[in-house]
Amino acid sequence: MKDWWDRNGKPLVTGGLLALVVVFGWQAWQKYQTNQSQGASNLYQALLETTLTPTGEPDAAKVAELSGKLKNEFGGSAYAQYASLFVAKVAVESGKLDDAAAELKLVMDKPADATLGEIARQRLARVLAAQKKVEEALKLLEGDADQAFLASREELKGDLLVQLGRAGEAHAAYEKAKAALSDDAAIGGLQLKLDDLAKGDA
pTM of the full predicted structure? Predict the structure, then answer.
């Protein structure tokens, strides 16, 4: 027994200690991640709930303060990027299109996930169009979109093409958007756009 212990005891003890380190390390990491997520969630909730003035309008200073805190403490997280989308929305409503574009570009360039990336892309395209940079906005929408966003991207393309006076291409984009939808109410809205284009051709 002593001989066996001399040969195998140390590796067994070392292996057991390593296993304990891995288990407790993993639990600590999970707890840290949960705390981080909860902290980011609370800040984001505060951003949505406490930034309204008595008139119901967002308080730009409070928005900037909470958003900055989210970015500093939880940079790159989905919550920080949703905060950027909110900041961009407030900037658009305040007529600060350059600020909105900067926020959206940051999310689009390094999205926390594909959904955030596509939302930022489409919103940035709308901001650019409002800045009369319609060709630049259209370039953002080139390439394939995830099926979940195909309809909204193609409809937006159609809107931009209408602005550029390219009715034929706009019609094709609207038709592509319509084909990707199953919701009759949404299709109805697209049909109105298609009908308006048809009237323009008549």
Answer: 0.74
Q: Could you tell me which of 75, 68, 15, 66 has the C-alpha nearest to residue 42?
A: 66
Residue 163 has a pLDDT of: 94
Please report where in the chains the tokens 């892309």 appear, as a residue. Answer: 121
N-term to C-term CA, the chain:
99
Q: Is residue 8 part of a domain?
A: no
Report pLDDT digits (tens) over 64-93. Answer: 888 888 888 887 788 888 888 888 988 998
User: CB–CB of 120/107 below 8 Å?
Assistant: yes
CATH code where residue 55 lies: 1.25.40.10
Residue 148: C-alpha distances to residues 105, 169, 180 (Å): 21, 22, 9
Reading phi first (left if > 0) and then psi (alpha if -120 to 50, else beta), residue 141 is in alpha
